[in-house]
Design brief:
single chain; mainly alpha; globular; 2 helices
Length: 69
């Protein structure tokens, strides 16, 4: 079964960009390749070329709210 989460991850990326937060969607990867899906590049203004840095920033960032408004 293939699960499509692209639209949800796009919404997360856009919310992160609007909020000035690192890309939480950077943490969602394909189980086989270990890489983000095709929709990552450009989602919320984030670029695949910066993906490793976004992963690190997302992990270190402590300002995400406990509940998304």
């Amino acid at each position: 079964m293939v699960r499509q989460v692209g639209q949800l991850l796009l919404e997360v990326a856009e919310w992160c960009e609007r909020s000035g937060f690192p890309a939480l969607n950077a943490l969602a990867v394909n189980a086989t390749s270990g890489m983000p899906g095709d929709g990552y590049d450009g989602a919320g203004g984030f670029a695949l070329v910066n993906w490793p840095d976004e992963v690190a920033r997302s992990i270190r960032f402590t300002g995400y709210p406990p509940v998304i408004p």
